Each structure stands twice: as C-alpha cells, then as structure tokens.
UniProtKB/TrEMBL annotation, chains A, B:
Belongs to the GHMP kinase family. PoK subfamily. HAMAP family: Pantoate_kinase. One of its GO terms (biological process) is coenzyme A biosynthetic process. It comes from the Archaea. This is Pantoate kinase. Its EC number is 2.7.1.169. Residues 44-66 are annotated as: Disordered. Pathway: Cofactor biosynthesis; coenzyme A biosynthesis. It holds the Pfam family GHMP_kinases_N. It is an enzyme of class 2 (transferase). It comes from Halorubrum trapanicum. InterPro entries: GHMP_kinase_N_dom, PoK, Ribosomal_Su5_D2-typ_SF, Ribsml_uS5_D2-typ_fold_subgr. Keywords: ATP-binding, Coenzyme A biosynthesis, Kinase, Nucleotide-binding, Transferase.
Length: 294, 294
C-alpha cells in the first residue's frame, strides 16, 4: 500500500465570554459562551508513512521545530495512529487565547482519520478532539466552536451528541494584538463561580439579541465582572472606544483566555495599534487535501 | 436611516439517498439521508430600500428575469420583510436536484435578517427557511444540509433543535450533468414507503462506514431499489463504471430528485461526458456582505 497523507485546516477561535461546566466525562464537560472563529488558524499535516516532503514517521513539529501538544498525542492514540508524522503550522500566537491547542487536536483528528483510513464521522472526530482537549485542561469550548466556524454560540456544553450550538449570522474583518500569554489551566483550575455567573448573564444577553455589537458589549462586561481584564488589554479597549472613526463601532474586547485584545472592522488600526488582520471564518474545520488513497 | 442591503451565498446540495418523514409541523417534518454540498450554489441579494445597483423595493428576480419562488416569499413574510427587493442568481439548473429552492429560501433568510436588522440567530433563520421549503413541498432536507456544508448526513429529520446532523469528513471534486427536470412534488406526493425503506438501509450503511465511496455505492443501490433511476442517468452511471481510468473510482450516482448524474473526481469527464465541475463546499450557507449598517 502506498503511503498516505492528509492536511486539515482549523480556524483560530477567540472566546468572548464563557461559563465553565466541568464533568467527570470529558465528552460531557465543556463550556457555554460565544466567540468568533478566524481565517487565521492552524494547518495540520499528517503522514501515515515515510515519503519525501511529508512529516517523517513518529515526528511531531510545531512551526518546523520539534515539539508536541498533549491533546494531539491523545487524539492519535485514540485513532490508533501514534506512528503518524504530524506537522502543526500556525501564524497565531500560542497560549494567547486563540484556541491553538484545540485547533491542533481537531486538525489532527481530521487528517489522521483520512491518512489512516479510520472511517470515523465528523461528529466522532470532533468528540475525540474535544475530549482530549478537556482532559488536558487546555480548553473547554474551542473544539466544538472551531468545528462549526462563523460566530459560534455554545448553548449547551459538551461534544456533538451532548452539547448544542447556534451562531450569530454575521461576517466581519477581525483585528487583534497580543501582549503575552495567560495560562488557561490556572484560570480554569481556580474558583470559576463568579466567572461562570458573568458568563451565563452574557450568554442570555446575546441570545436575546444575536448580533456582533451585542457580542462585543457582552464580552467587555464579562471580562470586567469576571475580573480577568489585564492592564494592556483594558488600555487598548479604551483606546478603541475613544477612537473617533466610527460612532457605532462595536469596539474591542479581551480574548478568553489570553493577554489579547480583538476588535471588529478596523477598530485597533484606527486607534493607532499595528494589529494582525483577518476575517471571520465561515467554514470551520475542514480537510483540505488527501493524497495516496484517492 | 440609510438603505440596507446584504448578500448571502448558499451551496447547491445533491441528495444521494433519503427517507421521507412527513409531519403536520413543517419544523418537525424532514428527511433522513445524505448528500454533498457544492461550491456551485445560489447567491441572494436582498435590499431593504431603493438605491442604484440594488434590487428595487418589492422586486423579485431569478437570474435577472422577473420571477419568484414560493419559499422565498414565505421567508420574507415570516421576517416581516415583504417589501424587500430580492435578486436570486445561480449557475445551477433549476428543478434538477440541486436544492435551488431551499438555497434561495435560506439565502433570503440570512440576507433579509441582515438587511432589515431582524436579530435572529442562525438556527432561527435555518428553521424559518426549512419550514417554508417543507410547507411548499419543494424539499425536505436540503436547507439543513446547505446550512452545514461539506457532506452532510441527516441522522434525524427536521430543523435545528429537532433534527440532528453528522458529516462525512472529506473533500473532493464533483462533476455533474443534467438531462432535465423531475418534479420533487410529484415524487414526494406519491407513496414513499418503498423509497423510505431503501433510504433507511442506505443510511445505516453510510453510518457504519462514513466515507465517500460508500456514499456513492449506497446512492446507486437506493436509486435502483426506490425505482427512481431514469434511463439517461442509468446509462451515464454505467459509462463511468466502465471507464478504465481509476479502478477504485467511487463512480457516479443520481441526484435526488432530478434527471441529474453526479460523480466524484473526474468520473464523468473520463467517461467522455462534458460535465460541469466544482468542489464539495466546506463552509455551508453564509452571509458574504452587508452594507449600510456597519
């Protein structure tokens, strides 16, 4: 049999607000909340054999450097594909609130399923990636959001078959600036009661008015009530607010969980920042290529 | 207030097999089955006011000619947007099994919601379009499939909140040839018991092995068992089968419900046909632009 390889793309995901819903079963655990998926994301190449130009057997790289992500290894184990070569590539900053670990896990699930001909459905692959990410404590809601694309609203926590999603029907340019890392494990490992109460209130607000300006308003209120706002982000939000370009501009908010500010339209550029720019990703996670079996 | 307009794109959807599940409530009614969504689709432009270059108040056009689609009018009524100008544009043949009416209804829901600032969520808009399409008798499962994109598997019938979806994780080129129309209303209005039994069997097969070659196999078996195969389509399926290019080629199948044959890869070209070509659409229905409110 010829060697098999496949490539998947998974959008970045910036959470605007959330409530944490832990459970013993990682398929059932998750978060409620909302965010935006980004055309900036993570590309995962998986190879089931050695051939030139493909990741070598058993290799693990992140942006070309040797390195592994726990949830990725767990996904490969679950698919009986630990021998895979896996190359993760992303322009997004890692540990800054873009869901890179969830994207890497989901991209690995999609690409390894194709490369190893594992015959799982989309829901099964999302479930495997979600469970791996939750069990590693690196995220609660990124995977299901990244699978859907657009502006996902997590109505009920958990993987497909357990959780429930809706979406804000919208498209927009997104800008972001990152000031550094913030540990998801530390925040999620602490007392999340106040955070979750603020997250539930924000979700109720968005469900009553599912539009982007309301999402951004609810995100700002959540960051402040959950006491997660860091000084550089707070300053950027104020600067975007005071920028005179667009009186109805939806403004900026903090990415959960990262020292990252994001804005819709040209909010950060207008305020004098030098942001990265992309768009809301309509498609969600997807296989982009297969070789060897077709 | 300035005039508002918005544009949505909805992929075409070719149903491979299905079972019909009628119900008094059109939100609950629907179909189980599977198919592929196409990058060839329907673009709907909706204008909430008169301005140059936008569809005029109350106007309805299909590919530039005056004409309306029942489900589109019902969606506009439901959104209190009957004054909208609506321009539907598509390269797909109408009435040939591509879900054009469902796509037009869903695209209208997305674009009218944005143009008229109706503040509905994605699930609500899909529900409105699904109910309109089912009530008009022009389709049962296209709308929910088109909303998801990719290779949608309809596990349970009905709109979001009632139905349930999965997907075959795959990407591929799709080719198609159309030989003419076939009335969805006539087939769905007749005795659907044998058809639905064949559809359920095909779905069980695909769930056990969610891959494209299995989808195509199950589709061929369904068309034959449900006695829906028309001569030109049967001939094309045989021709693709006998084409020597690729021994493992997944072959061709009939689009439900149309006098249309579709193939993955280059099956129809290889067999000497002159097909239209596109790809599986990863994204599903999406808003592609808004003006006036941002």
């Amino acid at each position: 049999m010829s060697s098999q390889r496949a490539t998947a793309f998974v959008p970045g995901h910036v959470t605007a607000f959330f409530s944490a819903h832990p459970a013993d079963d990682p398929v059932v655990a998750g978060s409620r909340g909302a965010g935006v998926t980004l055309t900036d994301g993570v590309t995962v190449r998986v190879s089931a054999g050695d051939d030139p130009g493909s990741p070598g057997t058993g290799s693990r790289t992140i942006d070309g450097e040797t390195g592994s992500i726990g949830a990725v290894d767990d996904v490969l184990d679950e698919l009986d594909a630990a021998a895979a070569g896996v190359a993760v590539e992303t322009d997004l900053p890692i540990g800054a609130g873009f869901g890179v670990s969830g994207a890497a896990a989901l991209g690995t699930a999609l690409a390894a399923n194709a490369a190893f001909d594992r015959r799982r459905s989309e829901n099964e692959l999302i479930r495997i990636a979600h469970a791996a990410e939750v069990a590693r404590g690196t995220g609660l809601g990124d995977v299901v959001a990244q699978a859907r694309g657009g502006v996902p609203v997590r109505l009920e926590p958990g993987a497909p078959g357990v959780g429930e999603l809706d979406g804000v029907p919208a498209t927009a340019r997104v800008e972001y600036v990152t000031f550094g890392e913030l540990s998801t494990e530390v925040v999620l490992g602490g007392d999340t009661a106040a955070l979750s109460a603020a997250g539930e209130a924000a979700l109720d607000r968005l469900r009553a008015d599912p539009r982007l300006p309301t999402l951004m308003d609810a995100a700002r209120e959540f960051a402040s009530e959950a006491d997660l706002l860091v000084p550089e982000v707070a300053e950027a939000i104020t600067a975007v607010d005071e920028s005179p370009e667009e009186p109805d501009d939806p403004g900026a908010a903090m990415a959960m969980l990262g020292r990252t500010v994001f804005a819709l339209g040209t909010g950060l550029s207008d305020a004098g920042y030098d942001p990265e720019g992309c768009r809301i990703d309509a498609a969600g996670a997807r296989l982009v290529g297969e070789r060897g079996r077709e």
